[in-house]
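Researcher: Please translate sequence to structure tokens.
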Amino acid sequence: MYIAQMWNYIDLIAPLGVVIIQIIQFLEINDYQINEDFNRSILSISTLFMWIKLLYVMRIFKNTGYLIRMLIEVVSDMGIFLLLLLITILAFGDSFLRLSNGNSEDSQFIEHFFYAGLYVYRMILGDWDTDTFGEISLPLVWILFVMCTIFEMIVMLNLLIAIISDTYAHVAENSEQAGFQEMAKLIEENEFLVPYHIKKQQAKKMQYLLLIDPVENIEKKDDSVVILKVESVLKQIENNKKDLDTSIKQMNNKIDNIVTQIVKIQQDHQKALTNEIQQLKAEIQLNKEKEVVQPVQAPAIDAQEPPK
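Model: Translation complete:
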């Protein structure tokens, strides 16, 4: 959808600001007094977004497309960090504000809560004035000043640099893909410009497969009849080779199954034969033991008649 794209809002804000400025100028010509702050604010915002729109155009080019992608990724990865930075800025700013309110009105170095955040932000950038710290709890003010400069300037800013470096390394490693991704998104964002009936004629749904290849990768081919015939024969040979390989593979599988069955049958027969041999050995051993245990009968002796 048109409203779902960030760049489309930038496209709308810039011309909308120009229209508002033209209306303001028309009213001024007719002696209507317009607030100068409002006039200059609209002019400033419109100018800013018109320049930002130039980044949208630079997404088309190969050398700048991935850089725009990198800028978007960096801003996206900085989201959580900026939230943490805002919390720490408000924490130190509120602390300075409480100490500032304890001084007299002329000695206060922070007026209200909004300026407290700006005060700490300027302190992060190195813009501070230690001569205006007032007189209330001056040692504590200096302690907070040192803590704020160490934590915000050293820890948080170096953490920000680490996040940006990590994002840069990730995008730079895939710079070519990032460039093509931006081009693809650019096409998607402007897809609505092509009428539906034209898109339907060019590419019917579920009928064509569109292959996109860079122009520099397309090799020039000879369209002669001989080359085409040779390519056709080679393609047919390749198909026959694939079919033959498939048949051979199926035959090998069948042979493997038969060999497996034969080996299994041999193992079963060998196992059965081994069992029978063991049974025969056991019977023979049992018969031998019976023969040894059976008692031997002594031969009968004829009794002699006594002499007369």
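Researcher: Any highlights?
Model: Residues 2-58 form one domain.
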